[in-house]
Amino acid sequence: MSLRRLAFLQWFGLLAGGLTWFAAFLAGAGTSVALCNPASGRWGIPYDTVQAALLGLGGAVVLLAEAAAVAVFRATRTVAEQDPPPEGRLHFFAIGAMVGNLVFLVIIVLSAVATIVDRACHQA
Amino acid sequence: MPRAGLVTLTAAALVVAGCGSKQDALSPESGASRGIATLWWKMLVGSALGLGIVALILLAAWIRRNRAGVPGVREGDRVALGVVIGLGIVVPIAVLSGLFVFGNVFLIRKTTMPTAAAAVRDRPELTVRVVGHQFWWEVRYPGTPAVTANEIHIPVRTNVRVLVSTDDVIHSFWVPELNRKIDMIPEQTNQVLLYADRPGRYRGQCAEFCGLQHAHMGLYVFADPPAVFRRWLDGQSKPAPAAGSRLFVDKCGSCHTIRGTPATSRVGPDLTHVGSRTSLAALTIPNTPARLREWLRDPQRVKPGNQMPRVELTDAQIRRLVAYLEARR
Amino acid sequence: MRERVERLERIWVARPGVLGWLTTTDHKRIGLLYFWATLVFFGAGGVEALLLRTQLAQPNGDVLGPDTYDQLFTTHGLTMIFWFIIPMTTGAFGNYLIPLMIGARDMAFPRLNALSFWVFLASGIFLYVGLFLGFGPNAGWFDYVPLASRLYDPARNIEFYSLGLIFNGIASTLTAVNFIVTIFKLRAPGMSFNRIPLFCFAFLAASFGLLFALPALSADLILLFLDRNLGMHFFDPAHGGSTLLWQHLFWFFGHPEVYILIVPAFGIATEIIPALTQRKMIAFPLVAIAELLVVFIGFGVWAHHMFADGLPTTTLVFFAGATAMVVIPSTIQVFAWSSTIFTGLPRFKTPLLFIVGFILFFVIGGLTGVMFVAIPFTQQVTDTYFVVAHFHYIIFGAAVFPIFGGMYYWFPKLTGRMYFERPGQISFWIIFVGTNLLFFPMHIVGLLGMPRRVYTYPGGMGWTAYNAIESVGGFVTLAGILLLFGNLVVSYFRGAPAGPDPWHGPTLEWSVPSPPPEYNFAVVPTVSSAYPNWDEADREADRRRLAEGVGVLDDGHEQVVSTLVDGEAAEVVKMPHSSPWPVLLALCLSGMLAVLVVEKFAVAAFFAVLLALTLLGWHSTEPEAE
Amino acid sequence: MTDFAVTRREPSLGWWGMALFVAAEATLFGVLVATYFYLRFKNLEWPPQGIPEPKLGVPLVLLGVLLVTSVPMQLALRAANAHRLGAARLLLGLASIVQAGYFAMQVHEYAGDLGRFAPADHAYASIYYTLLGADHAHVALGLLLDLWLLAKLARGLTRYRLNALSAITFYWHAVNVLTIAVTLTILSPSL
Q1: In this predicted complex, what is the ipTM?
Q2: How many domains does chain A have?
Q3: Buried b (16+ CB within 10 A) or exposed e, B121-160
């Protein structure tokens, strides 16, 4: 793989997963707040569809980011952590991205499933 | 009076038995609290394990302290990296996902009202409305005229739906032996399930900082056998004899209610049956004539910062008021 | 070689006397100013804590009345968070050390740095003026409405809260911007992103946290000010407002804040551990990412402070999910630290003892934090002493312990003298025992039902003995802290000379004399790893280059700027040096905010004009024109 | 200077400072917009009775005018980079005049709104005036920066002033984007 392409994959792997999780998190939690408030509750939000879509889309982007990180990691296998840039830096960020994206994926799955299962506006 | 006496007697017996004055989340008296307490013990064991592993690694390092070796610099080895990945990433993700699912999908159902269908099959229901005030609890029983304060009576082994709201700032309704806490928020009515396995008196306390006397905002929940509860509720629903005390109306009527008399203000607690309560000022003092006298003389000395102003009363007036109030049973 | 160094000394010489301190832009001097100021606030916060513990030592205590107690517990929390830990880590440690670690001569914006300090100092004075006038904030550091609204808190207490924190927030935001640009751009050539010392990663993470969390707090405080003073209705449900809005905005800031408090402490730990075990950190990239990740995920957990609010369950699970996974970066670091100590050659000197104590505290506090993933459990223990125990294990154990360890560790660098080892170790053990006595029983009383923020409690609840132990623990801790500072003071005068590198430390601050010269580095250092002081060849190259006069940059206050990602030299810029404008600007700003307490809007506008004029003066000279 | 080979031209330190400041300000606006919608979720009537719905015409036209000023700002930066000081001054001056006109019109509108309903009427009015006020304040700050920069540029171009121009241009682009978000939020009941 060319350095340019690796660089792109590295930044995509590092940044896309986190930003996607945060966007999906704000959208998902925001929709649930809208669902359960007096005015917005009457807008007829298709709640389960929205949450399933966020799970599908968000999960897909995070998986892609994870794949990109793994690809960069494999391409820079022989490089040590402190080697000179760009290879050292590519390798370094790829390791971080692999862990980060795994964590983001787990959050997305856990919260999306739970919000659909626990779909109650009042906890009594 | 016998029914109120019975309740007081039960309470007194409990105090003597020594299980009255506590609000212990680890002595659960309901399925909900038991579920939470059981989870706590499990998490405690897990935590001890986790702490133990880290402590062992550090202890081993301490045993190896000051050992000889190349004082230079060595790269990381694979085993240590494996420990970080295994114990630092894989195991915690698995354990925490498990805790998340158990706590927030399964346990949470135990702490909430059963669904309507299950309730019909299962157990009777009752609704109580509790309104938080600085610094006391107003208790109402929808469908009856009964209004009381700081002491909630519920039938035992019944799902009681407590609707909570607030008249002023945010409070939090919490009786740990029966269930989790729930905040009283100005803009919405929240609800919490109360259920008691056994008859008894359960202490609760305001858990959200609500001002100067947040510390003295306690409450009791009395879980009574259904028949006793029914009699108590009937008694509380009755108004006082119409021939009220003019002194009370003059001096206290601008804030308090005694149903059946011209005193109807809802600023302070409803005192129609104040004599049947075991405590005063949200559990700040026991309800005895001596302490009530002290309270009437200067409420700000007993509970500084509470909302009841000092009312100018002569000793004779205080004696008459105390006699009148203690008779409201 | 000699004349090159002398020339640098002439260029970078500081103005003498008090004026020199008032106009300084030297990051080391500003770091020391922060250090002394935050120690004073630490003392104040500690006295408040001991007063609270004295009141709670026995049931129905009557040392403090409820009004005093409320002001003291609120001020204690505010002081320790905003006027001790954040300024101590970012302000003092960060300021002093980060330019040294990345091989720079100062921060990216030296005058802004000075401004941060003076505004910070003014904000603290402002808060305490309020307290001594009897208008200390009294609604808790979280300051929930409607308790904090004009209706229920009609005096000026809350204005001292909101304006004091806005002030403090301005200072912290400026500091955050400064750190980020410094770490991004002023790294010595060769320090690519994978070679940034972990300490700097931690401060980068904390700075980003501050940058994105503080606006939420500022917005919240401004809305509160508008509600209280202009009759608006953001938090008034009777007119379409919402009290939960306050809580959402507050905790959107408030939870990342917790990580902002402890991540710099992680950074301190990741410096001390390699030095005292003579071993590079295990899993360097994982630890680096973990420091950034914990702050980032920390932005998604805020509502776990609101689990008992009666919010919909379907909303809460989003926050519970993030709360579960925000633990992962911390577990990574805990095992990286402990296995680095295990596989290294540990010398358990005082700094490392504090770090071991920190790891244990952090694990205990972290494990009780993990429990909040289960919503019903949180709803049971939130707002009780269980939570007080949890976050004191985190804040005292995981933030203050590394601060103490760092004080010992960098003491020789700052003073050129070594501290006394034996009293140092004794001070550790006293503090370790004292804080455990102080905070551990709080777990138990919390489970036994004792709520937070009560000024007294009845006897016969099973809480009495535990509270007594806690109070004793408070005074034991005090004794240990007094011994710690006593040791440092005596060592300052009597300690043995330390030399430039007593620990054989890994990072660049140990490559320069103790205390470091005004210009930090005579020659721009060569860097080829995150442990540059251990790269003997590079240090040798530096000495050679100094002898040859290559890379000295002695044409004015020069500094090399590098590229953001890979740290290649990009340009050489001139830095400003000592300026009276920051302190003047801070005075104008203080005047402006202080008169807002009494709603003198016209006077505030006057100060705003003065402030604009000061800014003009500030920018009248250009660095290149020197 | 010769000791370090200049590898790549990156934005100046000042630009980075401005970018991060803008990031913090953008978060502030994000929080205020979230506040707007959070309150809207809770209120069955939005705007409440007695407060007119916002009118679309003038605000949208003004928004368009403000957005257009991004072009001369960017051109001014390009001219300055090419050392064409006169053109840079002219373009910056032109942009400033349009921005000042925008600001004057917005102040006029704001005052007109205050005549119809007061910030203390309802939470809707509170967030309406606060959000718009915060946006206008940022425009005002931008105008002050313009004026200062014009005064500086009157005495020639230095690297410092070029960095300032790039930072201030970035500031205006950011303010324009934030103004889009604010305007659409404020107008949302009528959209």
Answers
A1: 0.94
A2: 1
A3: eeeeebebbbbbbbbbbbbbbeeeebbbbbbbbbbbbbbb
